[in-house]
Amino acid sequence: MTFEYAPAPESRSVVSIASRYGLFIDGTFVDSSSGSTFTTINPATEEVLAEVAEAGTDDVERAVQAARRAYTEVWGPMSGRDRAKYLFRIARLIQERSRELAVLETLDNGKPIRESRDVDVPLVAAHFFYHAGWADKLGHAGYGPAPKPIGVAAQVIPWNFPLLMLAWKVAPALACGNTVVLKPAETTPLTALLFAEICQQADLPPGVVNILTGAGETGRALVENPGIDKVAFTGSTEVGKSIMRSLAGTDKRLTLELGGKAANIVFDDAPVDEAVEGVVNGIYFNQGHVCCAGSRLLVQESIADEIVEALKRRLSTLRLGDPLDKNTDIGAINSAEQLSRITALVSSGEAEGAERWSAPCTLPDRGWWFPPTVFTGVTQAHRIAREEIFGPVLSVLTFRTPDEAVEKANNTPYGLSAGIWTEKGSRILWMAERLRAGVIWANTFNRFDPTSPFGGYKESGFGREGGIQGLGAYLTTEVTR
Ligand code: NAD
Ligand code: MN
């Protein structure tokens, strides 16, 4: 049964949101040269949160020049020990301002406060602490005795973990001595702009971090700017491919972190309740807006009915609604566009003959919502088994033998993550050797840690973020300009 809870909203007043934001270039907030702006919305209420400057080609050029100057004059020549001091200071400020950051993230993105407060923001701080620790030890990271920074990094990030994706990009780049121009996603620019304020508060030298708000055109202008040395992109496979095409023939370095269609594989010897919790965390965490989400449940045939039944029972207890409420499990879908993508793919599942079940919950009148949904009777040919839905929708397939599980799990153009649920350690290792995925979790799912490299194979992209491996994306042993 579901208990009634009294509302327990986190206070919105812990964060002050300006009505208008400029671009963060060379240490200060400035208007875009065209004066053009766009609005960002709270997806749970459709309320306009702020008006934000839209960067054009001229603004990109200004930001890249500021980053170049800061790189050659200040940040590149600075000792790793001194760079570390700034990064530690930023990490501590993130902790100090964690409540503000969590509330702002929840307002702009729609994710439950419990997740922004307990997962996103602590991981953001952890990424800065971890990389601060590397800044003066890069000669011991396995990249030769004196690896060099690459230069100016252009970084484009998505809306699903706005501040965390910023941390994954900015912390290693800065630790290695690069400067950055970062473009947050158009639906979630606000925590990046608060991060810009934190850079000011930390006295970070002007131009080391530049933040350009805008949509796809701003991103395109940034990655095509001839003054940058490296592009790091997280987002859709389609945009990733177009960036790769536009960089071909240049000497810009590139890392891509794209989509996924991960298999969460449950064997008949797995503890049912734990596995069900893991499946729920795998696909309903962050409304399923997770590139490494366990969006395909592969369950051994003999226990499939039991698992699906337990799963539906568990999903019926999840609370969907006000993301600022501390009891909320499922928040809002980030945008109307994303909701229509989810709805279209769910309709295709129904039309192609899979059986849909959605948790019985009341959706709020305003904002964008989708109930936790499970499809059974899914075949590998169905679109919902092949395409990334990026929403709270699980496709259930079955298997009989470990070989069949491996074959089905790998039958995808993606290769970002996978999960294995079994009591047998030997089976975990046997499976892990055969699954073609960058990250494999065993008897857990969606665990992140700054010491652990993250990244994919095939259409999930290339390059790693996090850990010693992630430093390699921001270092070179070549002589740089
Ligand atoms: P997207 O790839 O369009 O956007 C990601 C980022 O790239 C945003 O900052 C966007 O402004 C920017 N961008 C868009 N076009 C660009 C271009 N031509 N050049 C440079 N930058 C550009 O993703 P989306 O439209 O927000 O989502 C579409 C789908 O992508 C989702 O349904 C989901 O399947 C997938 N997605 C994956 C991830 C991930 O973490 N791997 C994140 C977001 C979305
Ligand atoms: Mn928003």
Give the neighbour order of strands across the main sheet. 14-15-16-13-12-17-18
The average pLDDT is: 97
What is the name of the CATH topology of the largest domain? Aldehyde Dehydrogenase, Chain A, domain 1
In CATH, what is the class of the largest domain? Answer: Alpha Beta
* Small molecules (ligands, ions, cofactors) in the structure: nicotinamide-adenine-dinucleotide, manganese (II) ion
Largest sheet data: 7 strands, mixed
Number of domains: 2
Strand content: 15-25%
Radius of gyration: 22 Å
The geometry reads as globular
Question: What would you note in describing this structure?
Answer:
By secondary structure, this protein is an alpha/beta fold. The chain has two domains: 12-258 and 458-476, Aldehyde Dehydrogenase, Chain A, domain 1 (3-Layer(aba) Sandwich), CATH 3.40.605; 263-442, Aldehyde Dehydrogenase, Chain A, domain 2. The protein is built from 15 helices and 20 strands. The protein has helices spanning 57-75, 80-96, 98-109, 113-134, 162-175, 190-201, 216-224, 237-247, 272-284, 304-315, 336-351, 383-386, 402-410, 425-434, 467-471, and strands spanning 20-21, 23-25, 28-30, 37-42, 47-53, 148-149, 152-156, 179-183, 209-211, 230-234, 253-257, 263-266, 296-300, 355-358, 373-376, 393-399, 417-421, 439-442, 461-462, 475-476. Strands 14-15-16-13-12-17-18 form a seven-stranded mixed sheet, with helices on both faces. The longest helix has 22 residues, at 113-134. The mean pLDDT is 97. The structure holds nicotinamide-adenine-dinucleotide and manganese (II) ion.
